[in-house]
Amino acid sequence: MLFGKNRTSSRPPSVYSIGARHFSESRPSTAQRLEPLDPRSVQLTEVQGIKPTPPTPVQSSSDLLPHTLSLTDVTSQLQHSTETLPRATAIENGISGHKEERRQMESHERERRSSAPLQSTVIPHPPQSSPVETTRRSGGARKKKKSESCPPFWESEISPLLSRLSLGYQLDPAQLEETVDTLHRRLRERECCCSSPSLLVKLAKIIISMEVAGKNLLNVCKLLFSLARTETNDALFSNEDISGPLLGLLRQCDEVSDSEALVYGVGTVKLLASNADLRPQLVENGALSFLHSLLSSYLQQGEVDVAPSTNIENVLVQLTAALRNLLEHSSLSSSLVSSGLLPLLARLLSVHLSHPSITFNISRLLSKLTLRRDCCEAVVSCPSFLPLLLHALTLHHSHHEILVRVCFILGNLTTDDDGVRYELCLTHKALSPLSSLLSSSLASELERDRDGTAVHEKSPDEEILIKLVRLLANLSVEARAGAEVASDKTIVGGLLTVLESLPLTSYSELSVNTLATLNNLSFHAPTDSYLLNHLFRLSQCKE
After folding, report:
1. Which homologous superfamily does the CATH classification assign to the domain defined by 63-123+193-389?
2. Is this prediction's pTM over 0.85?
3. Please, what is the Cα angle at 222 between 105 and 87, to 5 degrees?
């Protein structure tokens, strides 16, 4: 036995080194010592399951490009393959009926594809060789793979161009652009162009480092937006740490002439900001200050009577959505308040209140902010917010996503502040839009209950009613506001109808909020009020 006790039966003998320790000191009957075996003469035996170690992958052509390379013509090809951002005519995630995939928590929408392949035209990897067959001669297999890794056309057509590009700093711009164009054309002719997301992210980072402008800027922003829409590509953005270079490039954009590029660039920031791992990178690289500066610039443009274009409105949609996603970062709420961004958002809302997507995004942002008491005080300190939010209830009466969030915001603001309760009821006459909303939502929900469709899940109208009745309960805590609510027959009648007509078992949360509201109102209702005169109806409520 050649290897004694140390022999491993699952490995061929050739795997181990052979030395003097492997030979016995015993002598044969002839008393003549045997000659040691020559290790080089040992032949490999065929062993199933043993695969040759693959050679080092061929370096991609994108890695061979020098840092000073100008890819003007290459990037211009990208515009034919990247996707176009739809015009902002509807609210994200369902306000106009178009449902998008959702990520993370409530109100955290993200327009993404699951795993759609990209068709962008890029500088590819060299073609990989086909898998190598395992033969008895492992050395022959390695030689065969080496010879097939570089096809003839690669040696004759591609390698010279790559060598020329490696000397790019010695070429004038015209020669360099011609070389890049020729390389791209020949790769396309051979169908070697690769749409690997990893390669595309690396290519985009190279293009960004060149501080491109014009069409090249637009195309690289389109490419990044297309990649960011696929959630599985988030790790690529994180590994390449592309948020810093991207924000640096966007800071150099002109707000008007580069508005289309900003739509895709800020849209990329919005998509990346919904990822918990990428969000700290964006915050660290100054995403909040960039968005603050961009919003301020657009508001200044409006003040000098520059008519906002569709692209600018689309930028504002992406900007407000990016701010909302960034708020998931633990420390950003305080930074947003201290940065003076809330007054800018109030001005933006006053200018674009009729725009459903902008209003929706700002309502999402305020819904998150008003969960904190210090942020509630900051929102109330902007005097235009309360009347704007009340006006939004009337202006967007058919957009349930806006209505439920506005009621939620107002409910948060009136949780502990008597001044806000009084101001809403008596100064801004909030009961008129609130009573109209209560009547319309209750009528829709009663019809839904009669049809038997209210068994399994909450409807948009029920969500509105829950938030609206909570707001009325908070308003009723303040004496003057409570008396005003108790004297409104539409509101009191609607509350009694909720208890009388909707089953408690199916509407438990709404019923609890309604009982709390009626309890608060009973302290402020006059003796001859509509509420006290109809209290007997409560005993007839269905259980």
Report:
1. Leucine-rich Repeat Variant (1.25.10.10)
2. no
3. 70
